[in-house]
Amino acid sequence: MSLERLKGLEQSALMPTYKRLPVEFVRGEGALLWDDEGREYLDLLAGIAVDNAGHCHPDVVTAVTDQVSKLIHVSNLFYTEPGMDLADRLSRSSLGGLVFLCNSGAEANEAAIKLARRHKPGGGFVVLQGAFHGRTMGALSATPQAEKQDPFAPLLPGFAAVCADPAALTAAVTDQTAAVLIEPIQGEGGVQIVPDDVLIAAREACDRHGALLIFDEVQTGAGRTGTLWAYQQTPVVPDAMTVAKGIGAGFPVGALITAAGCSTSLVAGDHGSTFAGGPVTAAAALASLGVVSTENLLAQVVRLGAKLMAGLAELPGVESVRGRGLMIGADITGDAPAVVLAALQQEALVINATGPSTLRFVPPLVITEQEIDDALERLSRLPLA
Ligand SMILES: Cc1ncc(COP(=O)(O)O)c(C=O)c1O
């Protein structure tokens, strides 16, 4: 009954920007979700790579409830402790430079685009084909996908998209390039790992031409790949990176983080955000980072990721599997969106498709070995072929 009411409200009140699956979730714990009728689901999507610390982790719940009863918002015109601590923690745990806090992945990339323009006024951008950097106009300009871009033309000029090839990248970066923006593993693009030689070529080209190398770690960050940040498993260090999704445990938190050696910063009057670094969202992010930074959890992400990948590779209908840690993509011979619906309805398993034949698995990082076994068993009963 309740789901029918929500479908009605969706039709009468919401712009139809999302295609929802027919389920209403009302509770979550760890890697489990429950719907309005009490049915239990195993979650291998984590709110699209967001609930890294698991649903309603007690540390996050305590931090948020403590903070919300003391102070919710005063703005960036004043000092509050959680936001400052969050900037410090993000910087120390990654590139060591200055941080701009915001509320989402797209916003973090907007800040990165402005940083690059501060770095080289009027400069252009190089991005990879298949990239996804967000839906706002700047981030969309960096997302070279015709069906997403074309209805909203004209976009920001100056964005060149190249294939993930060292020679193509080297040729595309010039003295007029302000930044190269790369997801070290393309998430929405189907979990495509950008090869090391492409990242090295990008680093060298940026150094040669005085451009910034910026990693978009919105999806790969916060422990997702088995290190706190994905760049830590690559042979290069970027000049800046953008993060969001998993750092906030479901609260809207994003950030642009620069490297200690980065000479460029956004300065007073350049940029801002009313909500950014607010005490409640920052408290959530601090608690969430506390959970996903532990060595034990990161080691478990690597181990269980390998187990899930190996198990997937053995299922009939699975053509190829790729990924790092608990960010996994699988190409199947069957119809991926149909499998997603069957998984939900028949097996109470929450998964996701990034394309007609690609399934994506980004479970909460706190998922247990038993739950991975259980997920593989449920997947084996689905029409993957
Ligand atoms: C790599 C990457 N960058 C940016 C974004 C945009 O993040 P948000 O939806 O928080 O704006 C996403 C979202 O999927 C993403 O995967």
Automatic annotation (TrEMBL):
GO MF terms here are:
identical protein binding; pyridoxal phosphate binding; transaminase activity
> Which subcellular locations apply to this protein?
Mitochondrion
The GO annotation for biological process reads:
L-arginine biosynthetic process
Keywords (A to Z) from UniProt: Amino-acid biosynthesis, Aminotransferase, Pyridoxal phosphate, Transferase
Q: Please name the pathway.
A: Amino-acid biosynthesis
Q: What are the names of the required cofactors?
A: pyridoxal 5'-phosphate
Q: Which InterPro entries match?
A: AcOrn/SuccOrn_fam (IPR004636), Aminotrans_3 (IPR005814), Aminotrans_3_PPA_site (IPR049704), Class-III_PLP-dep_AT (IPR050103), PyrdxlP-dep_Trfase (IPR015424), PyrdxlP-dep_Trfase_major (IPR015421), PyrdxlP-dep_Trfase_small (IPR015422)
Q: Name one GO cellular component term.
A: mitochondrion
Matching entries from SUPFAM superfamilies are given as: PLP-dependent transferases
Q: PANTHER family in the record, alphabetically?
A: ACETYLORNITHINE AMINOTRANSFERASE, MITOCHONDRIAL, AMINOTRANSFERASE CLASS III
Record protein name field: Unannotated protein
Q: Which organism is it from?
A: freshwater metagenome
